[in-house]
Design a protein that fits this description.
By secondary structure, this protein is an alpha/beta fold. The protein contains 5 helices and 5 strands; from the N terminus they run βαβαβαβαβα.
């Protein structure tokens, strides 16, 4: 799978990237919303993990762009805001929602769910 990780927390990016690359996925990573938008416009991702709160563009703005442009990427909102619940994130367009700190099992389950067969 082609996966994009967009999060301004470098440790989260490193954690996710290492996990996903070890499982054979092609992973790009950026630390801000504008960089993520550039990549989303130029590449055809299967999954996009986005942090809710990033510099320049939020994860919600990126998800909105993906949905409005009918891109095939499934979107996973990653947030450190536990008060944001799953139904709220999904109502805003996210396909999945994970609260930080997230487990490798959660990430693995999502990737498996959307794996292209």
């Amino acid at each position: 799978m082609k996966i994009l990780i967009a999060d301004d927390e470098k440790e989260i990016v490193k954690f996710l990237r290492n996990f996903l690359e070890k499982r054979g996925h092609a992973v790009d990573a950026v630390y801000d919303g504008a960089g993520a938008l550039d990549l989303i416009k130029s590449k055809n991702y299967d999954l996009v993990f986005v942090d809710h709160n990033m510099p320049e563009l939020t994860g919600l703005e990126l998800i909105k762009f993906i949905k409005q442009n009918k891109l095939k990427a499934k979107t996973i909102m990653i947030t450190g805001y536990p008060e944001m619940n799953k139904s709220f994130a999904k109502a805003l367009g996210a396909d999945e929602y994970i609260c930080k700190p997230c487990s490798l099992d959660d990430i693995g389950d999502i990737v498996k769910k959307y794996s292209v067969t």
